[in-house]
Amino acid sequence: MLDNAKDIIQRWISEDIRKHMYRGKAIVILGPRQCGKTTLLNQLYEADQKMLYLNCDDVKDKQALEEKSISALKSLVRMNKLVLIDEAQRVSDIGLSLKIMVDNLPGVQIIATGSSSFELANRINEPLTGRKYEYHLHPFAQQELVRHLGRWNEQKMLQRRLIFGCYPDIVKSPGEETNLLNLLVGSYLFKDVFMFQDLRQPQLLEKLLRALALQLSSEVSYTELAQLIGTDHNTIQRYLHLLEQAYIIFRLYNFSRNQHNEIKKSRKIYFWDNGVRNSLIDDFRQPENRDDVGKLWENFVVSERMKYLANNHLYRSSFFWRNTNQSEIDYLETYEDKLEAYKMKWNPKRNAAANAFLKLYPNARLTMVNRNNYDEFLGIETVQKSRPF
Asked: What is the pLDDT of residues 229-239, one digit of tens each?
């Protein structure tokens, strides 16, 4: 169990956040509910700092931040040099409050967290233009788990990660994963979507999520999804956008340079966490007992790759590739003048021909990613076990 201070898993972005503290800008941390934002705030606090903690689930804290006068906000902060604002999306016009504090409280570091980027980002982007550093926090990444548990111990957990995912409570509570995941998905994860958006038919969102879970790592058609759940194309697009903004899913689009037989317009949808996906379809069977293990593997390594790129500030464009003959590359990255292609295979003995792709793009580098060699792809080949820094 990871239930005492020495066993707190340090978040990868915490080092970078510390480097940007006290530079005259607010720090905004966005991410889904229950991904560890409050714990991260605690990690950023040091015992000798004069600190004010405001939890905007508390009505009084929320109301105090909604007072927009300079004098009121100065009176709230007083002599504190670090102001931690949790669940900031609750505060009306939070961006203006943050702007006033940044502009009028020199030497004070403001750190705000929010669990719904579609709500918080809309309220902060214009007021805080040039006044903020923004970070995204997701469920634990492999780099973080390997640094804390060690490579060998985390490797033994691979099948568990495929099934139950990497949300902090899930990782820390072996044996309780199913109940905790069902609680997370049923009570917390979509709360902001329902709270801040006008969803006239919330049952459609549930149907859509289940349909996406069943089509994991496959190409999706908005028209087919609309027909399947009984709605229209525009509603599907809107709900998918909301789910992306709530850090539940993300989309990859088809790569094409207008070569012969390439599919020009298509997309695949992935879940940020395997456990959330499996909870949506109520399937927690072990990998050896299921026929979707290849899809689980692809979702796991692609989502972990996206965390790795974000956590390490690697700016690359991500795609998949397919042609009209159904030849497919699971994942592509482009950056500078490079094109890197990856096939995801759970079973390392299996291979897949990619001649069609390499014929079109002979300078591309193609790599098979399986359970025996995924370290480099996820940036963990050199990570050593370490304790909090």
From this structure: 999 989 899 88
- CA dist 280 and 284 (Å) reads 10
Q: Within this chain, do residues 339 and 300 fall inside the same structural domain, yes or no?
A: yes
* Sequence letter at residue 196: F
On whether both 103 and 159 belong to a single domain, the answer is no
DSSP state of 93: T
CA atoms within 13 A on the CB side of 71: 0
Same structural domain, 247 and 365: yes
CA atoms of 357 and 255, how far apart (whole Å): 11
Q: Is 300 within 8 Å of 274 (Cβ atoms)?
A: yes
Q: How confident is the model at residue 157 (pLDDT cuts 50, 70, 90)?
A: very high
Instruction: Say if residue 9 is in the same domain as residue 77.
Output: yes
Claim to verify: residue 97 and residue 149 sit in the same structural domain: no
Q: What is the CATH number of the domain that holds 45?
A: 3.40.50.300
Q: What is the CA radius of gyration of the chain?
A: 22
DSSP annotation of 188: I
Of the candidates 256, 254, 259, which has an alpha carbon nearest to the alpha carbon of residue 221? 254
Q: Is position 217 within any domain?
A: yes
- Distance between first and last Cα of the chain: 20
Cα–Cα distance for residue pair 277/35, rounded to 1 Å: 16
- Say if residue 128 is in the same domain as residue 146: no
**Enclosing domain of residue 19:** 5-136
The closest alpha carbon to 119, from 62, 187, 198, belongs to 198
Same domain for 58 and 127, yes or no, is yes
Q: What span, in angstroms and rounded, lies between the C-alpha atoms of 353 and 344?
A: 12
Does pTM surpass 0.85?
Answer: yes
Write the pLDDT tens digit of every residue in 190-227: 777 776 666 667 788 889 999 999 999 888 889 999 99
Burial class of residue 350 (count of CB atoms within 10 Å of its CB; 0-12, 13-18, 19+): exposed
Cα–Cα distance for residue pair 223/253, rounded to 1 Å: 16
Residue 389 lies in a domain: no
Helix (H) or strand (E) holding 62: helix 59-66
Angle between helices 117-124 and 233-245 (to 10 degrees): 80
Does position 381 have pLDDT exceeding 60, yes or no?
Answer: yes
Give the count of domains, the chain.
Answer: 2
Nearest to 165 by CA among 216, 114, 113, 118: 216
**What is the pLDDT at residue 386?**
44
Q: Which of 136, 168, 199 is the last residue of a domain?
A: 136
